[in-house]
Amino acid sequence: MSEFTATQLLGQFKKGDITAEAVAREYLQAIRERDPAVRAFLHVDEAAAIEQACRVDQKRQRGEALRPLAGLPVAIKDVLCTAGHPTTCGSKMLQNFIPPYDAHVITRLKQADAILIGRTNLDEFAMGSSTENSAFHVTHNPWDLERIPGGSSGGSAAAVAAGEAPLALGTDTGGSVRQPAAHCGVVGVKPTYGRVSRFGLVAFASSLDQVGVFARSVSDAALLLETIAGHDSRDSTSVDQPVPPYSKTVDQPIRPLTVGVAKEHFAAGLDAEVEQAVRAALDVYRQLGANVKEISLPHSPYAVAVYYLVATAEASSNLARYDGVHFGYRAKEYTDLGSMYCRTRGAGFGPEVKRRIMLGTYALSSGYKDAYYTKALQVRRLIKNDFDRAFAACDVLIGPTSPTAAFKIGEKSDNPLAMYLSDIYTISANLAGIPAASIPCGFTKMNLPIGLQIQAPPFAEEKMLRVARMYEAATDWHQRRPKR
Amino acid sequence: MSLTADDVRWVAHLARLELSEAELAAMTPQLAAILDYVGQLQQVDTNGVEPLAHPLPIHNVFREDELQASLPVAAALANAPDRQGDFYGVPAVFE
To answer: What is the reported pLDDT for A267?
Structure first.
């Protein structure tokens, strides 16, 4: 059962072949067996999960109408507040933090009768590309335990890949859903900025953060996305636009379809095996009748530089709230208010978070703001203009999600810049606010998954998912599972 | 440009981050390398380009000025490291 897609589980549940309790127990058992090696989860409350499942079974027995995710376990990145349960953000700073309210997406999942099966590991405050920056432990890639699962939502991606959950939520600020999805061989979707409410999401970079989904199939991702998307007045950046029923239309191909391929996505640094898999995927689209044409995103080579000024500047401001006063860790020894702040933050944050706060503070400091922060915002507009021009000529853009397959644990730990460059293809979508997905498109000779990125215009998630499903229906990469 | 340990110390002060000497020594060349990398933005001609702070054209969102339920005091204070009655406890600010 732990190999089923969410759509298959839901079908069996609706027919009455399985109970929500049996599904929950099966996944909890899978977590007990597999997670000691994978370490995707930070926190699993078995009793709470079984209780939720039993409530769903009772509703069905009473003849109540079934909700859209009835009985489906969903793993939650530990950066989304859940009332009464620890929400650590992978940080010592919030090790003992218990949120007093639910994030909007958690409320949506509860209303849909999903089972919240556990809290997944992440890079501290979602800052990283490998899940090595968690204050608690490192998560391992289920395809090769010596490798990283990607990040920052590495726990969610690894949980879905390992069959420890059929669905998961993550967050994507610069690729933190798509890059781990690619490295773990699952589907990952980052919606348009404003599509999903961030109320109750612990903020990293507020002009970039967006909640995203992980699944084993495009249809499953569509189902989860339509459940969490939509307007929420508690997030003033949430956009009031109707949410199309993604799961109902996902099987309909887009015809005619024009696929844009950015020549900048095939530049130096792209691994040869990844390039080969992506080019083969483009051939599949050609066979499906698509017109594939080369376009240019001339400013995309600057995306990483823009991102590490904009995201860090926003982070330095957002993380000022961790002051040892309102919630979270406070240093034990200090002499006055100022030393309490400095010691609390010095001891509560890990190295990557400190590095980014420092970089952002520098970029915003007197005398440097125009040269760094404002300049980055100007280039950000040029990056967005590139996309506007590209989407005037094509429906979607397709290319690699990440320049390489998953790297070894520890390989880039001492070189932050090399780590940052692993997000080179995903970052632009956050800067421009557009939706983007990663789907499995092959394996390296080492049997490591390769991801195909599909980017679409703002609020064109429906089209993007249909284009993704066209490829998935024509290939079987998504059906492979890691050996155990 | 080259970043000195004193620059890094000053930024750490602005960010209210206590860094050990070992952290300062490790971070100085790392930040210098990142700043060197982002320096490539200076090659881009941005004359007359309006900065883009936010990807969507959304503006201030207003609601009617009506009372709404808010978090109870006890819930709001439940995570405070130091609580004194219905207040947050902090080290004395004034002598």
So the answer is: 85
Phi and psi dihedrals of A170, rounded to 5?
A: -135, -175
CA end-to-end span of chain B: 43
The percent of residues above 70 in pLDDT, for chain A, comes to: 100
pLDDT in tens, A87-142: 999 999 999 999 999 999 999 999 999 999 999 999 999 999 999 999 999 999 99
Structure confidence by residue, pLDDT tens digits, A38-60: 999 999 999 999 999 999 999 99
Chain mean pLDDT for chain A = 97
| CA A266 from centroid of its chain's CA atoms | 23
Contact A353, A124 (CB under 8 A): yes
Q: What angle do CA A346, A351, A353 make, to 5 degrees?
A: 85
Task: Confirm whether A129 is a catalytic residue.
Answer: no
Q: What is the DSSP string of A433-478?
A: T--EEEEEEEE-TT--EEEEEEE-STT-HHHHHHHHHHHHHH--GG
Å between A430 CA and nearest CA of chain B: 8
DSSP, collapsed to helix, strand or coil, labels residue A286 as helix
The more confident residue out of A366 and A174 is: A174
pTM above 0.95, yes or no: yes
Mean pLDDT of A14-33: 96
As a whole number of angstroms, the distance between CA A107 and CA A82 comes to: 9
Instruction: Tell me the three-class secondary structure of chain B, residue by residue.
Output: CCCCHHHHHHHHHHCCCCCCHHHHHHHHHHHHHHHHHHHHHHHCCCCCCCCCCCCCCCCCCCCCCCCCCCCCHHHHHCCCCCEECCEECCCCCCC
Q: A342, B17: Cβ pair inside 8 Å?
A: yes
Give the integer Cα–Cα distance in Å for A409 and A266. 26
Radius of gyration of chain A (CA): 21
The mean pLDDT value for B6-16 works out to: 96
pLDDT value of position B56: 85
Nearest to A459 by CA among B61, B59, B57, B50: B57
User: How confident is the model at residue B1, as a pLDDT?
Assistant: 54
Spatial distance between the Cα atoms of A128 and B65, rounded to a whole number of angstroms = 41
ipTM: 0.96
Distances (CA, A) of A154 to A76, A129, A137, A148: 11, 8, 12, 8
Active-site residue flag, A176: yes
For A167, phi then psi, to 5°, come to -140, 155
Q: What is the mean pLDDT of residues A13-20?
A: 94
Interface test with B, best of A206, A375, A430 (most B CBs within 10 A): A375
In the predicted structure, residue A480 carries a pLDDT above the cut 70: yes
Question: Span B26-48, mean pLDDT?
Answer: 95
The alpha carbon of residue A302 is apart from the nearest alpha carbon of chain B, in Å, by 7
Out of A176, A402, A422, A438, the active site residue is: A176
Distance CA A143, CA A481 (A): 8
Among candidates A302, A343, A380 on the partner chain, residue whose Cβ is nearest the Cβ of B52:
A380
What is d(CA A93, CA A157) in angstroms, rounded to the nearest whole number?
A: 24
